[in-house]
Every structure is written in structure tokens, then in C-alpha cells.
Design goal:
With about 290 residues, this protein is an alpha/beta fold. It folds into two domains: about 20-95, Phosphatidylinositol 3-kinase Catalytic Subunit, Chain A, domain 1 (Ubiquitin-like (UB roll)); about 110-280, Isochorismatase-like (Rossmann fold, 3-Layer(aba) Sandwich), CATH 3.40.50. It is about 30% helix and about 25% strand. The strands form two sheets. Strands 8-7-6-9-10-11 form a six-stranded parallel β-sheet, sandwiched between helices. A five-stranded mixed β-sheet has the order 2-1-5-3-4, covered by helices on one side.
């Protein structure tokens, strides 16, 4: 969801601690609830998702609006808005077509490495190749100072991340049972990274954990880049249809070389030579990209 900044107040202005009553409106629904005093945009979004997650189309963009007494109508949530007294907010789907440009900069990007675990090695097609590409992406992230978030699906039964993947410097390495990587701990880690706009996502399986993660991320207003040569499944048919579906939702399906060169952007970048050397060390053509 994306909140648009707007002038004007409306709503909440008194001091106090504890929780504050808020009426959350979405479509024909209206549910009274509460949020901590001083809650801002992110907490309001989390509350909307907890109340209406099963009704919200996660592919859409949204605006959060506040009911302003002075105008007797809703206005776009003012920039820097914090809840301080009882108020009424609503989540409004945008009707306009949103164009995804796919620009990447190191300062606004985070890498997600999903479930690259030992037990998947014999089952996932081209697993050796996506390990090699994933390791190259993580090396690039370290060179460019890009935060990395790693998950492991039920590691007690499926093992840890494969030894070839160097997780040195990862911001978060987290076990999970949920298929999506979007866990409360991951959302908290994202909130600690200022200005995050884009997620570069890779791992397994394309049609399960990758797909569900990508859909949840775009539902939260983040731009998602899926690295096709670092993403696979047990079945190439599952992989192919998942990538096609995700591309239709506005998620960017791309390659590791495109990602790394877009992040440096210029031959004069101080890390260009090191990134170029990573690319030159690419694994032999595996045929995985021919099956996108």
C-alpha cells in the first residue's frame, strides 16, 4: 500500500499514552479497533492487513485516508501523521494503472534469499546452477552494501542453507514454516532499513515460496525483481507458469547480470571492476533461462 502525502490535519491532536481507538474502513466494512498511541502509517497498514487481509487484493496499490472533521470528508493521510486520539481511517484501492519502471539503486534495495537448503538439492531442477548464481548475487550485495534477508523452510527437517552459499553479513537468517518470507521479523527488519523500495528475490520454489513472497511484497507497495537464473522448482512447468503469472502482476522477471549491472549503473562506479569479475565467473549456460 502507498500513502499519498497531503496538507492539512484532521483527526488526532491530543496527548496520551497506551492505545487509541481507531475505526478501520475498507470497502463496505468498518471495524473498530485500536493502535498504540503515536502509531504511524506502517502500523496502520499492518492493522488493515490483520483485519481485512482475506478481502484485500494484494496485487493492487492503495492510499490510506483520514476522515477530516474540518472538511467533513476523507483526505489522503498527511505526511508524518501519528495517531494521538480517536479517529477514522480507510484503505482505498487506486483505480489507475500503475507502471513499474524497475529502477534499482543500492541504497533502496534489499536482497531476499529464499530456502536454498540442502534437502532440496536432489529435487530442484538446475539446483547447482541457481546455487552458483545465488552465491554471486550475495557477493555482489556485500560489495555494494545491500542488506540481505535469508529464510530457511523448516530447517529441522529440511536442513540449513547449503554450504556453498556464504551468508556472511546477512541482516537476518530466519527459520520459517510459512511459505511466504514475509514474516513479522522480516517486516521489522525491512522497517529498520531506511528508504527501501525494491526487493531482489531468488531461491526456491518458484511456484510456492517465491510466488507467495512476491505477491505479499507488492501488496505492501514494494517493487519486486525475481532473478530467473537463480530461481527454480521441482517441475519446470510449475516454474514457467509461476513466472508468467508474476510478470502479469507487474513483478519484474530478470537475470542476475541485469541486476548487478543495473545496481552499479556506470563503468566509473568504484565497485564496477569487482562486479564485472563476478559476472565473468558466471556458471556455464545451463538452459534454465530457456525455460522461463
Amino acid at each position: 500500500a502507498e500513502a499519498a502525502a497531503a496538507p492539512g490535519g484532521g483527526g488526532c491532536s491530543s496527548a496520551g499514552g497506551g492505545s487509541v481507538p481507531v475505526l478501520f474502513c475498507f470497502s463496505v466494512f468498518a471495524r473498530p479497533s485500536s493502535v498504540p498511541h503515536g502509531a504511524g502509517y506502517e502500523l496502520l497498514i499492518q492493522k488493515f492487513l490483520s483485519l481485512y487481509g482475506d478481502q484485500i487484493d494484494m496485487h493492487r496499490k492503495f492510499v490510506v485516508q483520514l476522515f477530516a472533521e474540518e472538511w467533513s470528508q476523507y483526505i489522503d493521510l498527511p505526511k508524518g501523521f501519528l495517531v494521538s486520539e480517536r479517529c477514522k481511517v480507510r484503505l482505498v484501492p487506486l483505480q489507475i494503472q500503475m507502471t513499474t519502471l524497475g529502477n534499482l539503486t543500492p541504497s533502496s534495495t534489499v536482497f531476499f534469499c529464499c530456502d536454498m537448503q540442502e534437502r532440496f538439492r536432489p529435487a530442484i531442477k538446475y539446483f547447482g546452477d541457481i546455487i552458483s548464481v545465488g552465491q554471486r548475487l550475495l557477493q555482489g550485495a556485500r560489495l555494494l552494501g545491500i542488506p540481505v534477508i535469508v529464510t530457511e523452510q523448516y530447517p529441522k527437517g529440511l536442513g540449513s542453507t547449503v554450504q556453498e552459499i556464504d551468508l556472511t553479513g546477512a541482516k537476518l537468517v530466519l527459520p520459517k514454516t510459512k511459505f511466504s518470507m514475509v514474516l513479522p521479523e522480516v517486516e521489522a527488519a525491512l522497517a529498520e532499513i531506511p528508504g527501501v523500495r525494491s526487493v531482489v528475490l531468488f531461491g526456491v520454489e518458484t511456484h510456492v515460496c517465491i510466488q507467495q513472497t512476491a505477491l505479499e511484497l507488492i501488496g505492501r507497495g514494494l517493487e519486486v525483481h525475481i532473478v530467473a537464473d537463480a530461481t527454480s522448482s521441482r517441475s519446470m512447468m510449475d516454474r514457467m507458469f509461476a513466472l508468467e503469472r508474476l510478470a502479469r502482476t507487474g513483478i519484474i522477471v530478470t537475470t542476475s547480470e541485469a541486476i548487478l549491472l543495473q545496481l552499479v549503473a556506470d563503468k566509473e562506479h568504484p565497485k564496477f571492476k569487482e562486479i564485472q569479475n563476478l559476472i565473468k565467473a558466471s556458471a556455464p549456460e545451463s538452459g534454465l533461462l530457456s525455460k522461463v
